[in-house]
Amino acid sequence: MTSRLILLRHAETQANVAQVWQGSMDAPFSSRGQAQVDATARYFPELAQKFPVNYIYVSPTGRAQRTAAPLSTALGQAAIVHNPLREFDLGDWEGRSFEDLRENEDLWARWEREPTFAPPNGESPVNFQRRAVQALTALLDAHPGETVLAVTHGGIIAYSLSAFLGDGHPDWDRWEPPNCSISVLDRDETGWHGVLINSVAHLSEV
Q1: Per-residue b/e over 102-125, b at no fewer than 16 CB within 10 Å?
Q2: Sign of CA dihedral 174, 176, 182, 186
Q3: Distance separating alpha carbons of residues 91 and 119, to the nearest angstrom
Q4: Which end of the chain has fewer CB atoms at under 10 Å, N or C?
Q5: Pairing of the two strands 55-58 and 79-81
Q6: What's this model's pTM, rounded to 2 decimal places?
């Protein structure tokens, strides 16, 4: 029996443009982000002809829900808020720029040395990847033989693609999903199979 997972990253926010770690925080869409949402909502009924969607799940963050809302309308299906789909939580360090975290906390280099390190009140890469994989696996386990659309975050998608299709190491450079990119994965008795990975073909005019 084959179950299918469609992953959609939220649209670009002003914090994405500013290179600020959002995590559990939120920010308004940029003008480009709103155009991405509109283009994705127009495209999804076409995609659903090929990959009919049975269930829509969405992260509790505002940016994910604002991305999912027009898709839910276009597909005529309610989106179910699912807390485990939330983004990597950096705890007390959220809202800081990537540059600040790199220069003053040596964060990415530290994670390379110590992937179990978590900022104050935040998550470590090891714990976050475990949560991401468990969240998506559980959704397919709950709906065997059906198609689940998860509207979520770059971290959830990148870390899960690494686990499902890669070597398990959180390789952001390889698996980073652009905003509003679409991935389609099939899971059967032999494991996970990539059908479409981080596609932005529907955003060609944005």
Answers
A1: eeeeebeeebeeeeeebbeebbbb
A2: positive
A3: 6
A4: N
A5: parallel
A6: 0.96
What are residue 145's phi and psi, to 5 degrees? 80, 5
Choose between 57 and 174: higher pLDDT: 57
User: In this predicted model, what pLDDT tens digit does every residue of 102-140 receive, in sequence order?
Assistant: 999 999 999 999 999 999 999 999 999 999 999 999 999
- Determine how many CB atoms are found less than 10 A away from the CB of residue 191: 9
Looking at the predicted structure, is the pLDDT value of residue 52 above 90?
A: yes
Helix (H) or strand (E) holding 73: helix 62-75
Contact status, residue 166 vs residue 153, Cβ threshold 8 Å: no
Is the pLDDT at 173 greater than 90, yes or no? no
Which bin fits 30, alpha (ψ -120 to 50), beta or left (φ > 0)? beta
